[in-house]
């Protein structure tokens, strides 16, 4: 079983997030990570604090992706975990993945509305109903914040970004590799149909090599996004048929099947059209992204090499910039 969004079996979906705490409902891998202090529970499935040791590994992965971005002359961007609602509206995400998104709502009233809000809280009533949608939503993918920066005409060689942000997807799960809040680090290219396709192809190969160099056993598998509903299954079939999404999957010891820890995606003109991006030649721009699920990579490394990064093979620590930090 490939653990992508398309395959949600495995027990987690049967467990209600409301009546479970991660420490008793979690998969054995999550429970072991909680016991080892690598993750800190929050009371919500798939939402964790990270220990220093965990974060050091995540930072090491970030460094590896940044080296790659630098070699391409990519513009580095660290985006906030929220995205402008106007940008979100252009991504079509609500049409395709309404079940995964998260919206931010805020209090905009005066004293009278504040009193009403507090009364509603005290009576255990529906106080969120008194809030208003903010001008932001939670980011679903790091690359979404890049496209509004490309509106207009691209330079001849297109634009390449090294972009990361915390992302949110509402998928409460007891599985270690499915978090609601996780870091995504992407190398994104916006250019011609050919340069976008080439970026996807070269990025896939390079990303897989990068993860293999960390001692992970990788395989490239055509995949589809978890498009919502009946129309969604048609979209997913088309995406699969055209091989627009390829995932880099790896077995994570302690979990079933294999897990997608990266994906390489060609979007065609999906973002070029709504964000009015044109190539130097005047065509609608195409885009492609290579996305690393930083948390899934950390979880995979911990499961494969053990819970003590200071005892990992030297070549792995060296790649992550961790060699020489111990003792
Ligand atoms: P995609 O846009 O392909 O769905 O996501 C890009 C990458 O983000 C995935 O390959 C995966 O590594 C990571 N990712 C997606 N969903 C989750 C999730 O629920 N939890 C974690 N930890 N990572 C995820
Ligand atoms: Zn992306």
Overview of the molecule:
- The protein has helices at 22-25, 28-35, 52-71, 85-91, 93-96, 111-122, 193-212, 229-241, 294-305, 314-319, and strands at residues 2-3, 39-41, 48-50, 75-78, 82-84, 103-106, 132-138, 152-153, 159-168, 181-191, 219-222, 245-251, 258-268, 277-278, 286-293.
- Helix 3 crosses helix 9 (294-305).
- The protein has 327 residues and is of the alpha+beta class.
- Mean pLDDT is 92; it is low at 1-20.
- It has a single domain (15-104, 137-320), classed as BirA Bifunctional Protein, domain 2.
- Strands 1, 4, 9, 10, 11, 12, 13 and 15 form an eight-stranded mixed beta sheet that branches. It has a three-stranded antiparallel beta sheet with strand order 5-7-6. Strands 2-3 form a two-stranded antiparallel ribbon.
Spell out the blueprint of helices and strands:
Elements (H helix, E strand, L loop, with lengths): L1 E2 L18 H4 L2 H8 L3 E3 L6 E3 L1 H20 L3 E4 L3 E3 H7 L1 H4 L6 E4 L4 H12 L9 E7 L13 E2 L5 E10 L12 E11 L1 H20 L6 E4 L6 H13 L3 E7 L6 E11 L8 E2 L7 E8 H12 L8 H6 L8
Parallel strand pairs: 1-13, 4-9, 8-14
Antiparallel strand pairs: 2-3, 5-7, 6-7, 9-10, 10-15, 11-12, 12-13, 13-15
Helix pairs in contact: 3-9
Bound molecules: guanosine-5'-monophosphate and zinc ion.
Q: How would you sum up this structure in a few lines?
A:
By secondary structure, the chain is an alpha+beta fold.
